[in-house]
Amino acid sequence: MANIKSIPVTALDGSPLDLASFDGPLLVVNVASKCGLTPQYTKLEELAKGYGSRGLTVVGMPCNQFMGQEPGTAEEIATFCSTTYGVTFPLLEKADVNGDDRHPLYAALTETADAAGEAGDVQWNFEKFLVGSDGEVVARFRPRTEPDAPEVVEAIEAAL
What we know:
single chain, 160 residues, Glutaredoxin, two-stranded antiparallel ribbon, 6 strands
């Protein structure tokens, strides 16, 4: 499996972003602005603020593959996230997380199985991948698992 932190990514504003520049663990989440799970942004931001000083970085990747729930431009997404949810964590450029045009980041992430032992495609918006400081995926949480669920918090604590 690839070192997740070595995979090239682009920030929402179009600039290159080096995931290896983040020393601690990453919580990588495919996000969308018009989804029933969109309120998870609040808890993701709380994790980013609460654990940021200890090294955790939340990274969001907007994706429009699930019923067109992220139709906006980069500017619209940035404005929505900052004004509606106060998001301060890094957002990547909008990309596919499944299929032939799957971003290389998600090609690597989806090799990891969830708690039930299932790897493969992302099920929906707000699927979460915890990446250790070393760039290896240590846990995968399906979309309906809240960002502050005990199993997520325990995994983050163990990765710090």
